[in-house]
Design a protein that fits this description.
single chain; 2 helices; 5 strands; alpha+beta
Length: 187
Amino acid sequence: MIVVAIIGVLAALAIYGVRRYLAVAKTAEAKQNIGGITRAALAYYERESAPAEDLADGASSTGDSHDVCNTSTFVPTKVPAGKKYQPSTVEGKDFNSGTDDTGWKCLKFSVTQPILFRYHYGRGSATQVAPNNPKSTGGAQKAFEAAAEGDLDGDGVTSKFALTGKANLTTRTMIVSPQLYLEDEVE
């Protein structure tokens, strides 16, 4: 009887460990895509994109040569509850939405494979997915949040992941938070 009880306890611990392992493995998607969104935001900021304009003698241009993309749409619009979402590849939808200075087209970022998380890119203080993040953008206009939100088990409790960046206007460089913000990682 004792041997059976010990085997039962060990089996229960193993099941818990495997479930947690699988949940953590699924969060790798969010972490990887947030890294990709952040790299795309940094690349856009580093591009020399001063507006074309005629300047009078001794005048300065009106636009900045380093800027941050404007806010994207949420993809998908609702957090997938315990299932995957296949992003649309139709022009103007999901990761194919935006313009040269707005959203996913500005970032040149897209995902074509099924996803477990809802993704968002926000400029400044626009709709932050992770408002409890201590490294928030602080409302700065030359700042961004790359975020993912998911409900892996469909219980209504969401996990949130975010990475923020903010421009240092003196050195004209983008400073990215050193650590990914996690909230209820495996919910």
